Known about the structure:
Blueprint: E1 8-13, H1 20-29, E2 33-37, H2 43-60, E3 65-69, E4 84-87, E5 92-96, E6 106-108, E7 123-126, E8 131-138, E9 142-149, E10 151-154, E11 159-160, H3 173-185, E12 189-192, H4 198-208, E13 213-218, H5 221-225, H6 227-233, E14 236-240, H7 241-247, H8 253-267, E15 271-274, H9 289-301, E16 305-308, H10 310-313, H11 318-333, H12 336-344, H13 353-368, E17 372-376, H14 381-388, E18 395-399, H15 402-407, E19 414-418, H16 425-438, E20 447-453, E21 462-469, H17 470-475
Parallel strand pairs: 1-2, 1-16, 2-3, 3-12, 5-6, 12-13, 13-14, 14-15, 15-16, 17-18, 17-20, 18-19
Antiparallel strand pairs: 4-10, 5-9, 7-8, 7-11, 8-9, 20-21
Helix pairs in contact: 1-11, 6-8, 9-11
Amino acid sequence: xxxxxxxxxxxxxxxxxxxxxxxxxxxxxxxxxxxxxxxxxxxxxxxxxxxxxxxxxxxxxxxxxxxxxxxxxxxxxxxxxxxxxxxxxxxxxxxxxxxxxxxxxxxxxxxxxxxxxxxxxxxxxxxxxxxxxxxxxxxxxxxxxxxxxxxxxxxxxxxxxxxxxxxxxxxxxxxxxxxxxxxxxxxxxxxxxxxxxxxxxxxxxxxxxxxxxxxxxxxxxxxxxxxxxxxxxxxxxxxxxxxxxxxxxxxxxxxxxxxxxxxxxxxxxxxxxxxxxxxxxxxxxxxxxxxxxxxxxxxxxxxxxxxxxxxxxxxxxxxxxxxxxxxxxxxxxxxxxxxxxxxxxxxxxxxxxxxxxxxxxxxxxxxxxxxxxxxxxxxxxxxxxxxxxxxxxxxxxxxxxxxxxxxxxxxxxxxxxxxxxxxxxxxxxxxxxxxxxxxxxxxxxxxxxxxxxxxxxxxxxxxxxxxxxxxxxxxx
Length: 476
């Protein structure tokens, strides 16, 4: 069962999409990776959804990726005596460590580590940026501010400080418990929230090891200052535009999105564009034209995947959201301008044998009008380099590791297949021809381009390219 598009769809599961019937329908409609959002739901909820996905995977015979999204630190103010207040421009407002309910002049801030990190004239954002405060002075006990942008403020609203590196780990005690639970389940990807600097990724790598791939969520402006380092340390990147849009000016987010995608393309790392892609479809059966254009723009930019959040998790139209996203992607990829944009943004190959082979595979596939490029991989590295080239033909990834096949489900253009381990390259070519035909990528007399690293099971050793005919391969 194959998709007739290259970019992938990630969809979040939740109250609207927890039944076996709905999850299977979402997969059939186009979902390649399912997201389990650990900001909501119990471990039992996520375990049930994980089991359902794996049962569907066995039924359809195709690897399905599962993404665990960690909540990360959630900075919030305390409560008020009367549930809410109305702040006025220019007034003084205090954030302190007094746990009693707040009033018109003050509120509890349950994050003592923040107090000494703030300096005079630092801006604080509350309630997704609707309220802006400016620090007058900060001590270990209280932060005295002046209201710059006024408005209503109610219990437990979010707290953001855009320009300050906060002395807070990206991994909370809750995240560590959730991570251990998810790794025991066998998730394929872990999305790390609140990444501020490379050390946050290194902390997660120590805990995760090789048990799952790490997706660093770029949702804080400070992370952009360390973009290349974070990309190099991560297995993939997520552009979390909702949170970026709180801490950045809205006009900055589109260019940052393009910059992140370019950086990931250059590094050969998958990138996911997320948040508010089809937001109106939470309550509407059709998206706005602006939302359709937003999804299309991410595809034109060359993203590996686009993601649905509340649209599929708690919205009224989860299936319709996936279906329209699938249609938008397919339509964009059929546009001749899309192919021109991919070629124009093609990164220069690095001076390695692996890059030379994968770049050549793309050109050879174009020249001979091959049906597919087939990569043999045990770690995913060969396939990732092939996807970096954005070839015109599908990439068929054959691997003996089911975990790798599942992880590759998020990568642009890749259809992954678990197969028995081959003993030599001749056997690999014969296997490639057989799988390409069985999976519907090639027919008798079609040609395919096969790449692999010999000896097998050595990461990053792609060193062989072969053109094979389906008919000839079967006769051997």
